[in-house]
Amino acid sequence: MHNSIDMKQGWEEALESILNNMGCAVYVRDAETQEILYANRVLYSTFDEEIREGVLIGLFEQDMVPGCIRGSRKVHHIRRGRWYDVYYTRMEWMGDRAVTLFVIHDITEKKAFQKRMEKQSYTDLVTGLYNRLCCERDLTDYIRAAEISGGKGILLYLDLDDFKNINDGLGHQYGDMLLKAVSRSLKGMEGIENTCYRVGGDEFIIIIPPSGCRSLREIVNGIVELFEKPWYLGDRDYYCTMSMGIVSFPGDGRSFHELMKKADIAMYEAKKQGKNRVAVYSGQMGAVSGRRLDMEKNMRDAVLMDYEEFRIYFQPIIDVREPGFPCVGAEALIRWDSGELGLIPPDEFIPLAEYLGLINPIGSHVLREACRHCKKWNDSGCPDYKVNVNLSVIQLLQSDIVESVEGILQESGLNPRNLTLEVTESLAIQDMERVKDILGRIKELGVRIALDDFGTGYSSLNHIRELPLDVIKVDQSFVKDLSGDAYSQSFIRMVGELAETIGVSICVEGIETREQFQILEGMKVRMVQGYYFDRPLPGDKFEKKYVPGWNDKAEGRGGREDCRLQKEFTNDQCGNM
Predict the structure, then answer these.
(1) d(CA 460, CA 466)
(2) pLDDT tens by residue, 535-567
(3) Is residue 201 classed as helix, strand or coil in its secondary structure?
(4) Beta-bridge partner residues of 506
(5) What is the pTM of this model?
(6) Which helix (H) or strand (E) holds 10?
(7) Do 216 and 209 meet the contact criterion of CB atoms below 8 Å apart?
(8) Can you say whether residue 559 is alpha, beta or left, with left for phi > 0 and alpha for psi between -120 and 50 degrees?
(9) Cα torsion angle, 124, 127, 130, 136, sign
């Protein structure tokens, strides 16, 4: 008898020892009297104050479902700043007494770790802004709240216009600096401090909930003003603009993906209008979005099909200082003749090519084809014919642009002096030292440099002195009203005199009428382009019309005399137009 009692006591002592040495708090409460029948050492040492104040049961048992046999819940002990998992189950005590067993685990460290992991999963590592995953979660909540309240929220979708120029041209470290600078500026704006997200490489979203829509105009204007100033990166200033698309919710969409799609359509419309713009989504934009998707698919396919659908046209460049106004070369212009969509204007597909990041391979294709054609002209009796090719800022700032140009020249066999690369001053990159270095290295190859669209944007007379130029091309906007605009006439005359002084040529684009052409007399203009002389022509038509002896060569004849006679005929023909 004593042995059984001793054994029972031994088991009870052992069980109590186990419970006292557990890493969690345990107590047993009578289901009827609410009396605590047992509590282990951890409970007393951890919650002694709560027990004395009589708040322990209220703290850990509030909101329990009545009659529930077992369950669990999380409790935030605000005063202690701790989190606990509470597990409870009904059981019998001492064989016949109904009690509830409570086990309390401190999960504060686990909760903090989960919070850190959640923050990391919702945070962009480069900028510190919230990321796309967090944006989708938050926007879903904002849409639901707007539907319930009957309010309207706004989503702003920003895409940096010239990020690729900086990222690829200057290096990823500069790209990261720009992203961080933009993020700090956006996050510092009143009203959007906690609703800024980086959702792509250079794409940002700002959510304005219904409560903040009254400040929409101020927020949008504030963002626009941010991008009117240069960004200080490293040791100097750089310009980078942005295009913005605006949609509202739930009016324009009731899901993250629907709103993103429409915001992207509006943003692309802003880019198509010339970048550095803001566009609000409309149903009309949605109606043409299908065509844009078709264009995107077909453009990618056209690139994969070795650029077969891209045609190179040539617009003759006329030397008006020589008798008969001879053609001395041509500007290469790209056209896209899509097998599915038909002929697509450059002002429609070039912005898309830039947006899709395809402008570099397409530009290289144009350069390669232009050099190949010019080599044929040179070999056909026109050794001085030159071809002009437009070089985008994105191409210009590629790290291997000089090697790329050199490789294409070697591949085609073209004499470098017969290639003229046309460049425009970037609205985004004000790093003149870098641009001068690149253009200088290109000139060392023997290639000529032309400054295109002069007189617009950030162009200045000082840049003419800084850049290693051979030709200045006056933008056609100065020609449009040339006959009745004294300013345009004075501008062209001034540029012509300046060009002659510093030893470069001047070319005027957009000459469409005899009156415009006649006004240029005496202005020291050397070369002109425009419909008055001829439109851009496919390669074969240009060659038949402007390459002396081309038809004779095709028929097996040819020779210097034939070329000369054909040239005389062509000059007379041009002069009579």
Answers:
(1) 10
(2) 999 999 999 999 876 665 544 433 333 333 233
(3) coil
(4) 472
(5) 0.63
(6) helix 2-20
(7) no
(8) left
(9) negative
